[in-house]
Specification:
316 residues; alpha/beta
Length: 316
C-alpha cells in the first residue's frame, strides 16, 4: 500500500500510547502518551518534515492534548470522525484493526483525500462548551431520576426528590455562570443581542451557538446547514427516489436548535407561518419541524452575517 504524492502522518491515540505512521518515511513509531512523549513526537515530526499533515481521530477527548500541542508547534493537524476513517479502511479492504493499521490508514486518508488542517477554538469557547456538555449530562440525570421517582416507594421518593433539587441547583449555577461569561465577552454579547426579537432562541441555545458553532455568519446557508447536519441528503438510485434525510453534523447544536424550534414555531410569527404552511401543504409534522429547524438556522446565520437585528430582516 503506497501513499499518494501528498504526504501525511497518522496518529492512533490511546490512553497509554501514540502509534504513528509517517508517510514519507514509511515508518511506524510509538510514543508514550504523556507530556514528555508528546514533546518527543513533535520533535520527531519536525525533524523529518515540518510541513507534513498529521491526521488524528476524534477519540472521545483522548486526542485533545496531542492536537493542541501539534497546533501550538505550528504543525498542520486535522481531527476526523472515526467513522470516516473506518469506512475508508473498509473501502481499501482492510478489515483487521490494530493500532499500527489504524495509524497507517489515517496517514493514507490524509494523503488521498482533500482535508485541511484545523485549529482548536479559543480556550474560552472550549470551556463554555465543556460547561454546556456538563449541563446536558445533569439534565439527563434529572430526567432519569424523575422516571425512577414515579415507581419508587415513598421513602425512596424523598431521597430522589432531594437529589433532584441538588441537580436543579447545579443546573441553575451553570446557567448563571454561562450568562456571566457571555456578558463578560462584549463580542459575544453584541452578536447575541441581534437575536433578541427572535422568539424561541433562549439562553441555552444561544450559549451552544457561540460555543459550538463559531462558523455562524461566515458560511452560506447550504454550508451552515451541512455543518450542523440539517442538509437533506438525497437517496436515489435509478428510478428509485427515496426520502431525503438529514445526517451527521454537530449533534449538540442540532439538539439545541430542535428545542428552540419547538418554541419558535409557536411564538415567533415568521417561524409559525412557515411551519403551518408546510403542514397545510401535506408535509408530515416531523418533516416540517426539521425544515423549520433549517429555516431557523438560516435566519440566525443571516443575522450574524449581516450584523442587523432580526426585526430589521423581518421588516425587509
Amino acid at each position: 500500500m503506497s501513499l499518494n504524492e501528498r504526504i501525511a502522518a497518522g496518529i492512533d491515540v490511546s490512553k497509554a500510547k501514540l502509534d504513528v505512521f509517517h508517510g514519507s518515511l514509511q515508518q511506524h513509531k510509538a510514543f508514550e502518551h504523556s507530556p514528555a512523549g508528546i514533546a518527543e513526537l513533535i520533535v520527531w515530526l519536525l525533524e523529518n518534515d515540518p510541513t507534513v499533515l498529521v491526521v488524528l481521530e476524534a477519540s472521545g477527548g483522548y486526542e485533545m492534548d496531542v492536537w493542541h500541542a501539534l497546533c501550538d508547534a505550528k504543525t498542520p493537524a486535522a481531527r476526523i470522525n472515526p467513522k470516516r476513517a473506518r469506512d475508508f479502511a473498509r473501502a481499501l479492504g482492510l478489515l483487521a484493526k490494530t493500532d499500527k493499521i489504524d495509524a497507517r490508514v489515517l496517514a493514507l486518508f490524509g494523503a488521498t483525500l482533500s482535508i485541511e488542517p484545523d485549529q482548536p477554538k479559543e480556550k474560552a469557547l472550549q470551556e463554555m462548551e465543556a460547561w454546556l456538555t456538563r449541563r446536558q449530562q445533569l439534565v439527563e440525570m434529572r430526567v432519569a431520576e424523575q422516571n425512577r421517582q414515579r415507581q419508587a416507594p415513598k421513602a425512596v421518593q424523598k431521597r430522589i426528590d432531594l437529589h433532584l433539587r441538588q441537580l436543579q441547583r447545579e443546573i441553575d449555577r451553570i446557567d448563571d455562570y454561562l450568562t456571566e461569561q457571555i456578558q463578560q465577552h462584549p463580542a459575544w454579547n453584541e452578536k447575541l443581542a441581534l437575536l433578541d426579537n427572535l422568539k424561541g432562541v433562549g439562553a441555552n441555545t444561544r450559549a451552544w451557538l457561540i460555543a459550538a458553532l463559531p462558523e455562524l455568519g461566515q458560511l452560506n446557508r447550504r454550508q451552515i446547514a451541512a455543518l450542523v447536519g440539517l442538509a437533506p441528503m438525497a437517496h436515489e438510485s435509478g428510478i428509485y427516489k427515496g426520502r431525503r434525510r438529514i445526517y451527521g453534523g454537530r449533534s449538540a447544536v442540532r439538539t439545541a436548535l430542535f428545542l428552540a424550534t419547538l418554541s419558535a414555531v409557536r411564538h415567533d410569527p415568521r417561524m409559525k407561518d412557515f411551519y403551518q404552511h408546510l403542514v397545510q401543504a401535506g408535509k408530515p409534522k416531523k418533516v416540517a419541524l426539521v425544515a423549520a429547524m433549517r429555516k431557523l438556522l438560516t435566519i440566525i446565520n443571516a443575522v450574524f452575517r449581516s450584523g442587523e437585528p432580526y426585526r430589521v430582516l423581518v421588516a425587509d
